[in-house]
Amino acid sequence: MRNLALHWQILIGMIAGCCIGLALNMAASERSVKITSDLPAGIVEAEVNDSSSRTVIRYRHEQQETIVTVDPSSRSKDGIRTYKQLAQQDPLASQIYNQHGKSIAKQVGGWCQKIGGLFLRMLQMVSVPLIITSLLSGILSLSGRQGVGKMFKRTLSYYLTTSLLAILTGLLLVNLIRPGLQTTNSLPTGAPSIDETHQTSLIDVIFAQIEAAIPSNPLAAITQPNFLSIIAFTIIFGVFAVRTGGTTAARIHDLTNAGLDVMMAITTAIIRLAPIGVFFLITAVLATQGSSVFKSLGWYVLTVATALLIHACITLPLILKFIAKRQPLEYARAMSPALLTAFSSASSNGTLPVTLTSVEQRAGVSNRTGSFVLPLGATINMDGTALYEAVAVLFIAQLHYGYNLPLSQQIIVAITALLASIGAAGIPHAGLVMMVIILQAVGLPLEMQGIILAVDRVLDMARTSVNVWSDSCGCAVVEALDSQAPQPMNANEPAS
Length: 496
Fold this sequence. Notes:
- By secondary structure, this protein is mainly alpha-helical.
- It has two domains: about 70 residues, no CATH class; about 350 residues, Orthogonal Bundle (Proton glutamate symport protein).
- Helices cover about 70% and strands about 5% of the residues.
- Strands 1-2-3-4 form a four-stranded antiparallel beta sheet, with helices on one face.
- The chain is globular and about 80 Å long.
- The chain starts with 5 loop residues before the first helix and ends in a 12-residue tail after the last helix.
- The C terminus is likely disordered.
């Protein structure tokens, strides 16, 4: 196993996790139990029926009987969709469930999630210092203010273009397939009309993103962490360090490179644990959710998956081939450790250390480009997330209204999804948080977001892989454009 290349080790861990997780879900995801002893004070009897699709908890407190249902696909405004909500709304039911009611699949899945979570925590541990040191190193390696400006413009242009292409792909597919009108759960044509009273203006969305990019306290932004603020302040610090020049810039450059060397050494050690982390994370997802969650949302899952595939396997490879002059299959093979890690962890920020290593050591992109483009991309380039949010909002609108949103509303969805994706954190389920902005922009009820919660984790894994793939392709594109441009003066010379 140790003699195999890292991407093969990760793939083996993923396949093993899928097999074990699905086997556990099929064989041990159902549990029905009556409890009469070892109950919380005041509870005389309890019963729990646990399954992959939902959990029903009934308990009797003196003469009063309470029934609580945890259903991820619930449409009720007050419905309990997650076990975290259960703990907040009914602590007694949560305690009974955790002590007595969990199926074996969910017990094993819970422990796998905890062990896999340790791997994620290690990746998160190095993310912030790695972003700061690699981004500063990239900026300081660009000699002269023109170097920074040109690379930043190329990078930003690529990210905005690919994100917009991803959103347009999602809108095209959701209008062709119309998943919200295919399902039997869609609302009748007499559903409520579009409510414009609770819409968020586009100016408010833009201003919120600008505000998020300017930290009131840079140290607080690091500790939270707020990646958009960290990226913005690091770029500002690096640009003005280059402008200052002389021995000041040289000292900061030397210190940054020393810090980057140490962070890369730590990162390389953590990456060796990736196959184990991937195994436990995949096992946890499939053991607790299985494949049943796709049945009720099949058309929606098909729409998102198809749109992501078109963007990842057609749009980005064409850009890679004709602009970066790289062979897409060879480049994807080089990036496979990062793509597999992204799929299993559903965190582009967490995957950043693996992405940096793969781009530089396997894909042959220079540190000068990778250390600038990737940290920026992990924060502002979310192709998969933007596509997913646009499809999800139109799917919810189709369910809610019983018809497609008009073109004017779809344009608002597209622009808002693009802006919201820029500020989305590269962590699991971050897209759900940013989706609130888009739902408000078109006046949709926020509670309908719970409809897609059941399949969000699996789709989150897919869209994170697309995010990381787009960032990786961006490195090749920027490197190719940079090599065609006139070369700057020696990068080791401090700017005057």
